[in-house]
Here is the input.
Amino acid sequence: MKQLLTILLFLAFGLLRAQPPSADAAEEPVKLAVSAVRNGTSWDIKVTASIEHGWSVYSMNNYGDMGPWPTSIHVDSVAGLAVVGEPAETGAKVIEGVDEIFGMFVKKFKDEAVFTQRITVADPTTPVTGSFEYMTCNDEMCLPPATVYFIVPGLASGRFELGAIPFDPNDTRFQGLATRSGSAELKLANVDLAAPVIKGGEATVAETKSLWSIFFLGFIGGLVALLTPCVFPMIPLTVSFFTKGSEDKKKGLRNALTYGGFILGIYLLFSLPFHLLGSVNPEIFNEISTNPWLNIFFFVIFLVFAVSFFGYFEITLPSSWVNSMDQKASKFGGMIGIFFMALTLALVSFSCTGPILGSLLAGALTADGGAWQLTAGLGGFGMALALPFALFALFPSWLNSLPRSGSWLNSVKVVLGFAEIALAFKFLSNADLVKQWGIVPYELFMVVWVLCALGIVFYLFGFIRFPHDSPVKNRSTVRWAFIALFTITTGYLAFGLRVDKEEKTFRPVALMSGLAPPAGYSWVLPKKAEAFHDLAAAMEHARSVNKPVMVDFTGWACVNCRKMEEHVWPEQGVKEIIENDYVLVSLYVDDKRELPKEEQFIHETSTGAKKPIITHGNKWATLQAENFASASQPLYVLLSPEGKLLTDPVGYTPDKEEYAGFLRRGLDAMKMLTAQASL
Here is the structure.
């Protein structure tokens, strides 16, 4: 009888929901289907999740309170039914590695995943009910965990029903919980989303990294590579060969331009394997950029690059490769010969360009643009290397203005060696932050960068010498200019070690934002942000001090939330307003800690659906959706102490002036309410 009531209840809610889907429902990134397959004397209950591109569903592993919500499949116990073994999971694309959002090793699925629970039943006509719980994320945010309930009216019938009833009356977790309609905890009576005190702008969407900026960085890297002793001497020799060795100037010019075009094409071809890897596993770039062990590998490799640049050994490709390409360049004429000449240059110059290319590879392989970022960077690098051959072929007289090769070329390599050490610690810091080892805190990272910049200054003065250096007897104007540049750089970086006495933490410099660890990640001056984490407590405090409330809907898994907290909130003109004029409350929608039993209940939403409020995350995610028609984070809401909406909420707003304007708009609305109350 109890099972029959469950079925009727399920079907009743299914009818209530059998209406045209809303816009929000149409955008649901995960579509579910349930099926049952006979397996000998048992049955496999399968839930198939079809996942939209860019989104993922996490595995059934338990990652603890700081990790993603694990997927689970549960079959209700009824007479004659037995669960066989643990549930299984398979997927079209299985991703395993350190997740950038959660900063820990996870397993997740892309495109499609199948979760299976094997059961045995005495009577195949017995209805089977159960629940499926999952969490879905993309690269910028996670949606609150969702619970979907299913019913198989009879295994032999081949009929399956799947509905989004947010609770199962038979679930022991929900027994004894009261159902509350329009519960005061989750429905803010004074909030009218359509009528804030002062109208404002709409939420700002996240900005994407431009491929042109990656191209430009690659181009700068190529210009630096031109100034190394492996490449620079080749420019006049090669251009002269084409312009003087041809029977006519037009053909020599054409050959030189072709040579430059082949150089660009060769570096573009280097990115082709990464496009193939990306088509097999789209998340491979995210795994590479966030995996702590790969970051440690990059750390070691960059130290090796640095030692090579200092002149203690050369990183060269096998001589047989170079000889083979050189022989082919001599053997073949025309276009084929020119191609092999370009390939020979790429191989011969590898001892200088290799470390720079390695830096480009390590920096470009991220989840943001994947292989196309790498193609853009290598395209810029190849363009910078090819450009001189084309320009000097067009204007041969410019060759006379080129500086002569000399010891200054080795100085460029040594300076790059110090830069490689600094970048090496960036990768070690990435691994440290992911694993939370605490071995590269903010102060150590900044000291290393200061010492690298100072090392360059001492080297340019001649106080430090490496194997291929001769004594510095005089310093040219250019050398003095670089000494001044790196002296200023040293001082600027040293300013990042200043202590903010009021905040009792380090005061980072702007250009190191995003490179250095957070200032609060420290051995000597650790600091965490202070805020309320309960809305009722924040509102009570706001009434006592007569200040408006800034509600920060955030999540442990929210990348853009961290960007706002680290790069916008500390800015002058924003920080002071948040700290002095608002009561800040941060509500984590993915907080998996359970509420005290007496605070748990079944919430009936505005659409009539019933949702269990078991965890803190359940509570805050529901509050956000019910009152502000939003399920994405961050979302910033400004309320008066009485709970009135002061201005339109905003989302990710990376422009500090725009965000400060939003905060000031809330203060103006607060003044209007105060003035109205005094009349």
In short: Residues 1-26, 163-169, 202-209, 279-284 have pLDDT under 50 and may be disordered. The first strand starts at residue 30 and ends at 39. The first helix runs from residue 2 to 16.
